[in-house]
Specification:
The protein has 208 residues and is mostly beta strands. The chain contains one helix and 13 strands; from the N terminus they run E-E-H-E-E-E-E-E-E-E-E-E-E-E.
């Protein structure tokens, strides 16, 4: 374990609300807000980090979409904003490519009516530089902040029903990354690298 912290494991609760609108011609807007908090004691005053997202997609042509917006993280002394930029392209009825930083980078093949296989480049540990507050640090790190980031390449197989239900399995390789810790003011940063490894997962998404 790290000598700046009393614990080796941390558990977090994450909740969010999303609103989607197609009311403006050729536009789809997504507004999202949420919170991540240490689930050991749910002390929102000391361990909550809040985030919001505004993401717009403009239907440039029948097969091409342009995406823009922002992510914002706050609940720290120095929160920050990340841009959302990219495109998605339907090459054919069966193939499409998405390249939207930092949300999605994937090649998707719709090989049957309800089935999709996807090659995805993404990150583990949340969106890029997603911060979490730590309860149980020592000294200056009593209510510290940590960030985990690594890049992975993953192959998924999914069952998708009318954009309401998605069930899937996947696996890939984590190329390694870094863990960064800092004090409650997001200063005195220390960064630790870690090695890559293989992994597998199962997932389910229900949209209302």
């Amino acid at each position: 374990g790290n000598p700046n912290f009393k614990k080796n494991q941390y558990t977090y609760g994450i909740g969010s609300v999303t609103w989607i609108s197609h009311s403006i011609h050729r536009w789809r807007w997504v507004l999202n807000g949420g919170v991540a908090v240490d689930a050991t004691n749910f002390n929102f005053g000391k361990t909550a980090v809040y985030y919001s997202m505004l993401w717009g997609r403009y239907q440039q042509t029948e097969n091409l979409g342009v995406n823009l917006g922002f992510f914002a993280y706050y609940g720290m002394r120095n929160g920050y904003v990340l841009p959302i930029l990219g495109v998605d392209w339907n090459i054919s009825p069966h193939w499409n490519i998405t390249a939207v930083f930092p949300i999605d980078a994937s090649i998707n093949f719709h090989f049957a009516k309800y089935f999709v296989t996807s090659l995805v480049a993404t990150s583990l540990g949340g969106p890029y530089r997603f911060p979490r507050k730590i309860h149980g640090g020592i000294g200056d790190y009593e209510n510290g902040i940590f960030k985990v980031y690594s890049t992975v390449l993953e192959l998924d197989f999914s069952f998708v029903l009318k954009n309401r239900l998605e069930l899937g399995v996947g696996g890939g390789w984590d190329f390694g990354g870094w863990i960064q810790i800092s004090d409650s003011h997001n200063h005195d940063k220390q960064t630790y690298d870690f090695n890559g490894a293989g992994y597998a997962r199962a997932f389910a998404t229900v949209t209302f």
